[in-house]
Fold D-glycero-beta-D-manno-heptose 1-phosphate adenylyltransferase.
Amino acid sequence: MSAAALTFLDKLCPPEELVQALARLPRPLVFTNGVFDILHRGHVTYLAQARGLGGSLVLGLNSDASARGLGKGPDRPLNPEADRACVLAALESVNLVTLFDEPTPLGLLRRVRPDVYVKGGDYDIESLAETALVRSWGGQACAIPFVDGYSTTALVKRIRG
Ligand SMILES: Nc1ncnc2c1ncn2[C@@H]1O[C@H](COP(=O)(O)OP(=O)(O)OP(=O)(O)O)[C@@H](O)[C@H]1O
Ligand SMILES: O=P(O)(O)O[C@@H]1O[C@H]([C@H](O)CO)[C@@H](O)[C@H](O)[C@@H]1O
């Protein structure tokens, strides 16, 4: 396989390269975060719409340790962080993927300082600490409509019968 076919790997951003990588991205900068354990139609619809709200989309991905603390189940995440990051980086809608290791993305959000913070309609955007934070520097928070019938947990349940 030619190296050109693997350019999506360039979207994986280690924390120490974040500042330089962000400076190269077209504004407005949109940011979202999540686990994205098994990618489904709800996710890709959501990410495409998020990308449409600005010039580039930065995705903060929960590390495996961080995801394990979210109570999604004892064997979650099923896909390890490196694999989840690669699948997301291969999407046209996503410009940059960076991991965070804390229970919430607030620390990462402070470093990125996006123009727009996005979360899916399964969250009450007004009550999120992320919303208050992004508004503190004049950014906006935006909820993307939930696509009914798509969730990783439901998919795992169906597969396991
Ligand atoms: N069906 C959906 N429609 C729109 N957005 C979604 C949908 N499912 C998840 N999202 C959004 O995608 C992001 C990642 O969500 P998450 O990884 O929790 O997906 P999930 O399918 O709900 O997983 P799980 O069932 O493991 O909680 C979140 O910001 C969430 O709001
Ligand atoms: O994939 P999820 O479970 O939607 O992602 C979580 O979102 C939380 C959200 O930002 C609420 O504040 C976040 O705190 C958590 O770390 C996951 O990213």
Summary: The longest strand covers residues 56-62. The mean pLDDT is 97.
